[in-house]
Amino acid sequence: MAVVTDKRHRLAAARFIACLIALFGLSRATVAWADSPPDGATIAHQGNGHGVAPCMACHAADGGGMSAAGFPRLAGLPQAYLRKQLDDFADGSRADPTMRPVASALSEAERDAMAAYYSRLPPPSAVAPAPPTGEAAQRAQLLATRGRWSAGLPACEQCHGLGGIGVGEHFPPLAAHSAVYMANQLHAWQQGRRHNDPMQLMQRVAAKLDEADIAALGAWYAAQPATPAKETAP
Ligand code: HEC
Ligand code: HEC
């Protein structure tokens, strides 16, 4: 009997020690993580080592994007907007076959780090050398600044700011996005692939635009500077 009790004591002691070791290990892991939170610049240039390709492969080293391919600029976009898009790609409310695997393989902390990193990079200058001319220019300017009230379409500026430079954290800039990317987004809303917009604000807007509007607006905003002219002047 005495031997059995002794064995039980030893077993309990061994379990207690195993518990302590596990706890110690866990706290060490937590401390290690706290010492080195994910680094946005490293992931942007080298990937995260867990299946995420370097962002710069598509969004360029300066975060300016690649216009012709429809890879958007990330540099200078609002931090909360960037963070939300990564969640939206991962949960499919913004369905994109290229970004879904990327966003899904980023941890919460890595998504935070990427949003912080890109929001702090200086935005690129306009991606098109000159705005459209003639009919396209008139059409774009009217839609951007006044809307089309006969069709219940508000001006883009009302939410996206003067010149499309963006308003606060949740109305992203349109300036310095390529015409290809703009068209991809407007089509994605029309076709229901992107339905991550609060109160369906953009689904309603996109539904009222035709192909000529989309082409004109894309060319127009691609030529707008990402920051107002007075701020970029030397
Ligand atoms: C293989 C190419 C590729 C890689 C690598 C890639 N992206 Fe993207 N990214 C895209 C494409 C294409 C889009 C546009 C998707 C669409 O049309 O909706 C996009 C869009 C985005 C957007 C939305 C921008 C906006 O204005 O709404 C964010 C944010 C983003 N990517 C972040 C990242 C981050 C962070 C990384 C690296 C961890 C990364 N991407 C790596 C191709 C890529
Ligand atoms: C009533 C407010 C409102 C109006 C008016 C509006 N937008 Fe938006 N737009 C939004 C919001 C909000 C988002 C961000 C959605 C999200 O969180 O993904 C957005 C996002 C966008 C994006 C995506 C940007 C990116 O980086 O992916 C494009 C492109 C866009 N809007 C184009 C337009 C155009 C063109 C017009 C005018 C014809 C317009 N919007 C008018 C509210 C508006």
> What Rg, in angstroms, do the CA atoms define?
25 Å
The top-level CATH class of the largest domain is: Mainly Alpha
Oligomer: single chain
- The parts where pLDDT drops under 50 for at least 5 residues are 16-33
Q: What is the residue-mean pLDDT, rounded to a whole number?
A: 87
Give the CATH superfamily of the largest domain: Cytochrome c-like domain
Order of helices and strands: HHHHHHHHHHHH
Cα(first) to Cα(last) distance is: 91 Å
Beta-strand fraction estimate: under 5%
Bound molecules: heme C
Tell me the major beta sheet: none
The CATH architecture assignment of the largest domain turns out to be Orthogonal Bundle
Features:
single chain, 234 residues, mainly alpha, Cytochrome Bc1 Complex, Chain D, domain 2, 3 domains, 12 helices, binds heme C
How would you portray this structure in words?
The chain is mainly α and 234 residues long. The protein folds into three domains: 36 residues; 81 residues, Cytochrome Bc1 Complex, Chain D, domain 2 (Orthogonal Bundle); 99 residues, Cytochrome Bc1 Complex, Chain D, domain 2. Helices cover 55% and strands 0% of the residues. The chain contains twelve helices and no strands. Helix 4 packs across helix 6, helix 9 crosses helix 10 and helix 9 packs antiparallel against helix 11. It starts with a helix and ends with a helix. About 8% of the residues have low confidence. The site of one heme C has 21 residues, from helix 8, helix 9 and helix 10.
Task: Give a brief rundown of this model.
The chain is an all-alpha fold. The protein contains 12 helices and no strands.
